[in-house]
Fold this sequence. Notes:
117 residues; mainly alpha; disordered N terminus
Amino acid sequence: xxxxxxxxxxxxxxxxxxxxxxxxxxxxxxxxxxxxxxxxxxxxxxxxxxxxxxxxxxxxxxxxxxxxxxxxxxxxxxxxxxxxxxxxxxxxxxxxxxxxxxxxxxxxxxxxxxxxx
Length: 117
């Protein structure tokens, strides 16, 4: 009876550990989804300013990117394939915004130079 009880206990504990692991991964994936929702909000905020971006936006843009990078680095889970795809798409959108800010800064510098001549 003691032997069967021990096997049953070990079996139940193993199932419990597996269940906690699976649930834990789900919670960590939820953490990634929450991060991605916030990332998308930031992207949409910047996209709404498209056409009105200037060099003065670069510091705020860099702060937003640094904050998001720090948040992502704190997540201990690996993103799923779907989450990685979403990250890639958001990254592309942010690169476009960054390029627009750089372009605006270059045009502002060119205009300043033209005024000097």
